[in-house]
Amino acid sequence: MVPMVITLQWNLPFAGVMMLLIVGFILLAVLRALNLIPRRYTVVGRRALVIGCIAGTLVMWLSYQPPPQIHRLAILPALPTTATDAPAGFGYGLAHMTVDLIREALPKNTRVSPIDIVSSVIDKTPPADLQMALKVCADIGARYAVFGTYNQDQDKSVVLQMHFVTVEDSTVTTQQFSIHPDSLSSVPDRLADAIQQHFPPFADLSLPRKEVMNADAFVWYCRGQAMYQRHTPEGYWDAAEAYRNAIAHDSTSAWPYFGLAMVYQKWKRSEYTHQAENTGMRRKAIAHAAVALILKPELIEAYRIKASTYRALRLWDEQSVSLKQAIAADPEDPWNFAALSRIRPERFEDMGFKNEARVGEKAVQLNSDAILLRTMLIRSYLNAGELNDALNFAKQVLDLNPNRNDVLLAVGKAYEYNAQSHQAVNVYTRAVELDQSNQNNYIGLADAYSLRGNSEKAIETYETAIRRLPEQADLYYSLGILYQRHGHWEKAVPYFEQAIEVGNHVDAHFYMARWYEKQGDRQKATELWQQRILLGDPHEKWTKKAMTQLRLLSPSAVPAIGVNQ
User: Fold this and answer.
1) What gap in Å lies between CA 71 and CA 144, rounded to an integer?
2) CA angle, corner 318, sides to 317 and 321, nearest 5?
3) Which one of 337-351, 423-437, 525-539 scores highest in mean pLDDT?
4) What pTM, to 2 d.p., does this model score?
5) How far is residue 215's CA from residue 167's CA, in Å, rounded to a whole number?
6) Radius of gyration of the chain (CA)
7) Angle at which helices 39-63 and 14-33 pack, to 10 degrees?
């Protein structure tokens, strides 16, 4: 049963009270039948049970204290209003520095959302209007938000148009700032002052009156942020140069080192001939994150950068140590526990957690408003094999968020794992109705139909999805798998071929190689096995299986990728 502490809506425990009454009545009846108590004691006992349960329920109702409200603030990067303003990257630099200022001076029962979590949610489309900002706040459980736009006027001054949002009633107030180029580094301080004025829970901020970064370094850091957000190899190169320039102007600030850590973590070449280079870049990411933490030990984002980079390097012990260090530095940050729930239980059992579900529960306890944490907990219950808890919690989440696509996907998966295919079909159908551009909605719906034994509807679902989303290789591959599982290779092959043509789908190569082996075409099978090996993760079991198959077929054709079978 889902623990009461993470129940999203508190209700009187009528079911528990009724169970207590029934058990009590049965016990009294048994004692009376065995002549262990007189009849009058049985009558008195029944009355006492009823009165006690009613009184207890009343006391619980009157004494219930909701958990203390935590006022969370999300600072979203301001958007440039024109393409010519975009290279300055002022919005991300401003957001990072303002979060940094406020984090040092938070009043009781207030939090500021870590900038790496905000950035991961908004990805490449920062909120430019109220509805988008409200969605971000729902994802991360923030009750207040700041977002806006900026541009440069004719004398190169920066004009900020900032919006201050109270999520509960969707009210917005707007304030404009005009900043001279020589005073850019003072803007985080000015924005923090405005947050004090607009949001009562943050009125008691005792801000440190200091320059957050050397003025020239701040400009370079903002430019680095702009280049990084392009998420291209050229963008990462330009971002690294900008961050290095920021360090040259101010080597005492942790943020440029954090920026370099982000760049080196993302700077990756997909071909496995570049694995040594990729590993070197990841090592640099860890080193720069470590420097950032030396300069600013409370920079929790840097611990998470280290942890995710260790994960990419498959250094599981180091990953768990980094997350434990993050938790030690800030035990009230739910996102550290959310990350910890994704690693194997033996890595965190020493912290008193039995499995990933217990860690996920801790994250939700710390921030029960965040939809992302709720959906992650549903999946943690499923991964831990606690299917009933997953379904019970999923129903709670669905009641509160009936029109969220990510919620519907998580709830649908909970129904699938509990073999309730009819309900899963209904949930996934709702997801498709809400968003016809999300391939996962169709894949979930097709899986639910397959669970019901209705292959025709599953095939029809995939065909509809392919007509609407012809560029999604996963849809062709999934339909091919469905045909292949039913032994219809002749129908599966065209879809595997299409998955390769549309998106060079790595696993489609595996099945096509098997098909050509069956047809006796050794040359074509060899080529496809090679492609599957070169495109896949060399440590993953299906890549190793492909190597085994290719070794049996043509030992000299096995590509050298630095990993033994």
Assistant:
1) 7
2) 90
3) 423-437
4) 0.83
5) 33
6) 28
7) 170
